[in-house]
Amino acid sequence: MAAWHSPSAAWRERSWWGWGWADEALDDDACRRLAETALRPWMPIDGSVLPVPYDPVLDPPRLIPPSIMEEAFTADPVIRAAHTYGKAFRDVVRALHGRLENPPDLVCHPRTAHDVVATLDWAEAVGAAVVPYGGGTSVVGGVEYRGDAPWISLDLSRLNRVGEVDEVNHAVRVQAGVFGPALEQALVPHGLTLRHYPQSFEFSTVGGWLATRSAGHYATGPTRIDDFVEALRVITPQGPVESLRVPGSGAGPSTDALFLGSEGTLGVIVEAWLRVSRRPSDRSSTSVAFPVYGQAVAAVRAILQAGLRPSNCRLLDPVEAMLNAGATDGQARLLLGFEGPTTPLLADAVTICADHGGTAATSSGDQGTWRDAFLRAPYTRDALIRLGLIVETVETACTWSRFDALHAAVIAAAQAAAPARVAVVTCRFTHAYPDGPAPYFTIITPARRGAEVAIWDEIKAAVSEAIAANGGTITHHHAVGRDHLPWLAEQRDPLFTDVLRAAKRTLDPRGILNPGALF
Ligand SMILES: Cc1cc2nc3c(=O)[nH]c(=O)nc-3n(C[C@H](O)[C@H](O)[C@H](O)COP(=O)(O)OP(=O)(O)OC[C@H]3O[C@@H](n4cnc5c(N)ncnc54)[C@H](O)[C@@H]3O)c2cc1C
Prior knowledge:
Structural class: alpha+beta
Strand order of the largest sheet: 5-6-10-8-9
Shape: globular
Bound molecules: flavin-adenine dinucleotide
Distance between the termini: 37 Å
Largest sheet: 5 strands, antiparallel
CATH superfamily of the domain at 283-469: FAD-linked oxidase, cap domain/gating helix
């Protein structure tokens, strides 16, 4: 199999069909062991393992690269296959079945902003669609073109320079293709940190975070990427747009706000100034067990509303705590962490938990177990898919007063839509704010081989309806892409959609940028 350019400076093969590094995927024997030891007792599976396909065979590309930029383009089938989908369940299962009906005709790796301009000009001239691609970790069909035109996947991973680190103003200038770890490494010698990165950290890019308005690894905030952006440089088919680098501005609606979350439909983000902060001198953490889930929810709300801002505040329901933190006592777990001179703050939060019936652990063992399970989770997910399970996540945010009903409705909808009504549904808070949580549900259910995507789409539709009916957003941080469009229409005012369409017509009059996403 051809090597695919890795996000780091080194070359390492990334999986073209599944998550992450190819050499970290579970092999057939490991999948079988997983089936025997962990699954058989509670999931009806037959134990067979869907094979990993050989190198993909694709139709020949419909485009010939322009001679002046020939070296930036490739039609290598493995690279085209790798850029066909993102990394959602439905992406992995389709790739495993060899269903690569609409791969990009070409993949382009620009090295400069000028290359981006030239690629957009050329695409307009030949009538090709252009889909910006950062790390390709979208879980909402954000990097998958579903139209008929020939198309180019514009892979920005070679725009990978971390520029000036501005120690005076605590900011860094960074190109959009830089991956999270590379950015953090560049900040370490300056004693600085971004203190914000998505959980797909290793494989997602700065441009991807900005274009999707990713939410960070840390649970409370400021966790929205918007707060970290000082200024942007965006290339649109009509020319570049830049914003002014200032700490704040009341000069009308913000330029950055238009492009943050625009998912590659209005322009290609090529560079950003991001706000950074001093690396914390101190960290403290604990986990708190709660026999009553509702009490745990109330404790999280009380912590946030008391003005405490934990850097980690993840509430795992009892099933999530069992599967991912090894907690077999049937209790929920709150993983709590603070940064900075933190001991009194942690003690305050623990006191609030005790008032709600929580007991703090004497060691932070749960945190370590959970973190290890969490980092391995996408590889395990791919193995479970090969064993015939549907494993997928759904996330939202709602106000505290809506949470109980939304939580119950999502679980009921997933179970009712699952085959034979057998589904494990777990919930954790990835983020929590003074006015509400961001619940993140994991749904595991057996699939009929070959019908996985159709079954999942039914579950997803049922769950999305339940979210909408209970006042939740269709996405807190996974973005809209193509998969969330029907429910976006329910929550976004039509007049505002018209405003966005007008912006699209102005910046991208021929509609070449990521057609079908977000609108
Ligand atoms: C296992 C897993 C864990 C995840 N965990 C998190 C999490 O903790 N928090 C979170 O927020 N998300 C998470 N996600 C979702 C995803 O990782 C994020 O949306 C991430 O920000 C995408 O970054 P990327 O570089 O991979 O972007 P891509 O997937 O390449 O692109 C995403 C979208 O942005 C557009 N885009 C990409 N780069 C640019 C650019 N430079 N200019 C304009 N448009 C661009 C693309 O066209 C596409 O619409 C997770 C996904 C997976 C599979």
